[in-house]
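Entry:
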Amino acid sequence: MQKKDCFFVGKIVKKYSFKGELLVKLDTDDPEQFLEMESVFVEQHNNLIPFFIEHSSLHKSTLLRVKFEEVENEADADALLKKDLFLPLAALPKLTGNKFYYHEIIGFTVYDRQFGKVGTITAINDATAQHLFVIARDEKEILIPINDSFIKKVDRTEGEIHLDVPEGLIDLYL
């Protein structure tokens, strides 16, 4: 399994017990969807290694407490601290309507109600407090906040996102 075929689930942030249990900070608004996982890929030395899950439960509602098979003690758990977890893209539930995964809209064409065709989404900047569409237009880069009130339509068939952004926002970049 290669990283490009997977999505980021979360990061192992600390040990929970001396029996090898770990706490995972999940990258989701819906942690319950990850309670039924049978296995997960752990990134080690730029490789994805499968780990099978004995049991898991939510811990303080935002963390996943997990016990992997063959992780039996603190030393085994220490080796996994700060590691990223991944699942295959096929494990993602399908989204409909105006909800989308960031990876699925790369390459979509963006249209604004007033401006018209804006450009093509080349990336999503999620390193800031407000996540941003990164849009290429005529050798220029346009950044538009990902805001539910701006998104009017996501057309997966045509590969388009229709927005209604505040007047003048796009012009700032041109």
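The domain at 102-173 is CATH 2.30.30.240 (SH3 type barrels.).
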